[in-house]
Structures are given as structure tokens and as C-alpha cells.
Amino acid sequence: MISLSLLVLAAWPFGLALARPAPPLSPHLVVAGVPQYVLDYGMWQIDERPKASMLMLTSNNAAPLVYMDTKEVYFPSDLGAQVANTHPDINLTELPNPPSPLVLENLDALNAVGNGGKDVYLTSNIDVTTSPSWLEGVAPDSTGKTNQATSAAVITTDHGSGLVDAFYMYFYAYNQGNTVLGQELGDHIGDWEHNMVRFQDGVPQTVWYSQHSNGQAFTYKAVEKLGIRPVAYSARGSHANYAITGKHDHTIPDVNLPDGLLVDNTSKGLLWDPTLSSFFYNFHPADSTFESINGSPVQAMNFKGKWGDQQYAKDDKRQPPPFFGFYKYVGGPTGPYDKQLNRSKVCPDNGILCIVRDKLGP
């Protein structure tokens, strides 16, 4: 979602469902040839995974568990369904001869047009204002799985010398923006959010929570956990990730106040385990390439375009008049390749101070 800080700063003077219980953790496992920390931190249902994925699970040792908000209506979504329900546009005009059918396995073919793919938008086949059902995603079941929906991508970056970053990328078909002074702003089709866990010699050190244009970092020791797995709270509609429940005013990056005008809401609703329905990849910093694990479609990670509609024009009947220069419907997001997978700090390098908190708080 876009940042609305300027709007809120200008306007400031004027202005439960029960959570499902967490699935039980698997018992302690010892598997010859698999590093023990992989099993200790990633042992949840590890015995059910294909043997070929065991090396990948060096990235999965402290995989976060995500609580959806109790009032959430836009759940994690299948990546393939996003492509199936969209078509590629450039400058609000349908691409004349796209691959047919367009699927995850050939998605990066769109990089051949539109400024290396960067000008391509995956545009909904159905008018968003009619609330097509595919935008609702798939609610996690009692085990935390989004059934028949591959709704996440786990990507590991090995920096060498025992330093490994594991990115847990979460996909939603729709982002519902915040309501400011009665105006809903920043809605868009397609939504990528993520946690990142940084490891040193197999031991989790810090956890990053993506939030709109920035996010928050905490020590692994400080964050809430189920067993040894970090917990994230996905904000209602916007899906920004937080370390605690409650209200989060995100007007100022890195400063989450308990209330305000630009507010995300989090609570303990349905519990989602992204690793149960995920693609898996290694990212190689030397040449910025992805390596597929267990047949995961690397073409989807290579796609340089946007995973939703382009911002609708002012004269588009779907677009309400702008509010202090901000719009209800904005452009869709770029994919995981654009999330600084080779970052030096646990925070992305965006000019904002990287604060690693050692205590939980807003």
C-alpha cells in the first residue's frame, strides 16, 4: 500500500471472532545428513516434506506463523489464480499477443516488452468494483494451510560465512487500503508482504516485518513465538505485518503509535502457516538469479512487472475523486525480486534508520 503520511499530517489537527488454536508442533526429530538446527527450528511437519526439500529447509528453520485479523475478508491467494484471472496491460492497454495461456511457468516472457517488463500490469479480467470472488483468497484451515492455493514463496539468500537470510513472501490477491476521514484510500489488486529472518550459523538473530513503505525489525529473542517459530500479525485488509496485536498508526515510518488517523488493525484470528503451501527458491546475490527448488516456477520470480492493475485514471468511472491528492485505487505491486533480497542489514536500504528493537511494542 502507498504511504499516506503527507495527507495524515495535513489533516491531523481536524480530526470478535475466536481464534483457532495453534496446530501442535511435531516432536523432536533427528535425521542423518540434515543439520540439526534445520530440524529444531523447522520441524513442524518436516517429516511430511519431500526428501529433496531438506536442503532448502536450512532457510525454513524459524519460519513465521501469521495470524490473520478476526475481521479479515481478503485472505492469502493462489499465485496461479492471480495470473489466470488477469491479462497483461501496458499504459492501460491490453497487450496484443501475450503468451497463451499465460501461466506462472512463462510469466517472465512479459519481460520482453514494456521496459523489460517493468511497465506491464497484470490487470483483472473482471471489474474490481463488482468484488469478484477470486480476490477473497483462501482462508487457512485448522492446520494453518491454504488448501489448493500456493500463496507464499520462501526465498533464501546465503551471504557466506554462516550468514543466511530467509524471506517468507506472502501473496494476497487484494489490498484494502486504510480509511482516512471517511475515505478509503490505497486499494490495489495484488499484494506482496514479507517477513525476513536473519540467521548466523543456523541460529536466528533478527526478524523483519514489512509494513507499507517500510517496516520494523526485532531481535528473535524479543518476538512472540509459537514453540520456536516467530509470530506475525497480518493487518486487516492491508496485510502489513506487525509483531503485536492492536491498533498501529503508521503515519511516520518506524514509529507505530497506538492510534491515529492512518491505522492498521491486528488480532488473533485464523492462524496461517505459509510454509505448508509455498514455492521455494534460493537467491544468488552474485548474479541476482533465482534457483528453483522442487520444481517451483522460477519464471514467476523473474517477472519484472506488477501483480495487479495500473492506477485507474482520473476520468475512469471506477476511480472516485482524489482526496488531498490521494486515490482509492492505486497501482499493483512488484514481486519478490524487488524486495532487496541481497540486503546488508535486516532492514531494506531505503534511507530510513534501521532500528532493531529488543523489546516488543508498537
From TrEMBL:
> Where does the signal peptide begin and end?
1-19
Instruction: Give the top-rank taxon of the lineage listed in the UniProt record for this protein.
Output: Eukaryota
> What species was this sequence derived from?
Venustampulla echinocandica
Q: Kindly state which keywords UniProt assigns to this record, in alphabetical order.
A: Signal
User: According to the entry, what is the taxonomic lineage of the organism?
Assistant: Eukaryota, Fungi, Dikarya, Ascomycota, Pezizomycotina
Q: What is this protein called?
A: Vacuolar protein sorting-associated protein 62
Is Signal among this UniProt entry's keywords? yes
